[in-house]
Amino acid sequence: MQHPNNKIDADLLGKIVLARFLELPLRAVDRLVSRTESATGFTALRPWVTVGQLDGAQVAHDAADTPQTQASPVLGEIREASRGLMFLYHRDSYAREYRFDEEGVNHLMSGPDFPREQAGVLRRLRLINTRNRLTHALMQAVLASQAAYLRSGQGLALLPLTQAEISARLRSESNLSVVADPGRISRLVRGLSIALPNGKAVPLGGLFPKPRQVHCHFVDHVIKREKAWMLQGVLCEPLTDEAIAAILKREHGIRLSRRTVANIRHDLAIPDCRSRSQRMNYLAATEGFSTLVPLTPQALRTAVPAQPGVYEIRAALGSPVSEAKEGWLEKSAPPGPHSVVYIGSTGDLRKRLGDHLRGSSDNVLLYKHLADGAARVRFRLINEGWRWAERDLYRVFCETFGTPPLCNRMSP
C-alpha cells in the first residue's frame, strides 16, 4: 500500500527490511552485530539497553575450526546431552538479545533533537532480536521434530515436515513475540547450515522435507540394498518398480504406486531395472562415494574437505535447467553416461572443484556444463594413490558405458 504522495507505507517498509535482513549470510550478521555494538550511537544508548543472550541459548566457544575472531558459515552444532539433544551456537552474535527500557527509550525518541544515528542503531538492534529469536525458536522445534535424524544422520529417519507446518506449530505452541510465517522461515533457513553430532554439516532447509522428498530417500535406500542382495544371491536381477513398491509397503509401511516409484527413480537419475543390470560394474567401482552435493561455493565450504580423493561430476544434459534443478536430489547410485560428465582426482578436493566451478581449470567444455548451477559432485577420500584410483574408475566407466565421460578430454 502506498500513500497519495507515493511514499511506501511504514508498516510495509518494515516488513521488506525484515525480509531482507533474514536473508543475510551469517558472516554479514556477525559483522553487523560487531559494528553496531562499537558505534558511538550504541554507547549513548547503553543506559537504556542491556546486552544479553537468548533464554535457553548456549554458545560453543570451543567449537572445532570455529575461531572467535571469524564467523563460521555454520550456525551451530547438535550435541547429545543428559536430557536429550541440545544446540550450541558457534558465535555469540547468533544468540545475542538486547533488552530495552522501553519507557526510557520512548521518552528519548520523543525528543525533537533525538540523533538519527541512535535511531538507526535502535532499528538494527530490534532486527537482530527478531532474527535471533525466530532462529532460536525454529531450532528448538527442529530438535523436537527431527531428533531421530539429527542423531543418526540417516535420510530414512527424516519425517515429513513442511515450513508451513513448522510455522503453524511455532505460532500455536511457543511464546514467540515474532510472527513466524512460512515466508520468513523460508528466507531465514535458505542460507543456514548446522552440524550434526557426527560432524557432518547439513542445510537447515533440508530438515523440512515434503513427503515426496522423504519417499525419495526410501526408494534410493531399497535400490542401494539391491546390489547387496544380488551379491548374496538373494536376487538374480535388479528390482522392478513394482517390486520396489511392494518392499516399501511391506517393510516401511509406505504405499506408493509403481508409477510413483518410476517417477521418483527418474528424479533421482536412477536407471530402470534393465539398465541397472548392465551397470553393476560401475556401481561396484563407486562403492564408498559420498552422497551427491551441489557444486556451489557454499557446498564446497561446508561439505567438501580439502583432502585428496577421486570425484565424479554430473550435469543435466538435454533438459531445461529448471527441470534439472528440481530433479537433482542427493543419492549414491550412479546414473548413465548422459549425466556423468567428468571423472577426476586431486590432492585437494575443495580447491580443485572450486577451480572447475570458476572455470580456471582449463576445461572449457566442463565449465559450460557447470555454468547453469545444476551440477552435482560426489567423491571418495583417498590419502594415497588417488591418481591410480581415478584411472581405475575411468576404465570401469568406459567398459560399463562404452564411452568416456563427455568432458574428459583424455584418459588419465
What does this structure look like?
The protein has about 400 residues and is an alpha+beta fold. Helix content is about 50%, strand content about 15%. It contains 18 helices and 11 strands. The strands form 3 sheets. The chain has a 5-stranded mixed sheet. A hairpin with a 5-residue loop joins strand 6 (about 195) and strand 7. The relative contact order is 0.08.
Keywords:
11 strands, five-stranded mixed sheet, 412 residues, four-stranded antiparallel sheet, 18 helices, 13% strand, alpha+beta
How are strands sequenced across the largest beta sheet?
2-4-3-6-7
Total strand count, please? 11
What is the approximate shape? elongated
One letter per element, helices H and strands E, the order comes to: HHHEEEEEHHHHHEEHHHHHEHEHEHHEH
**Class based on secondary structure composition and strand pairing:** alpha+beta
Report the portion of residues in β strands. Answer: 5-15%
Number of helices: 18
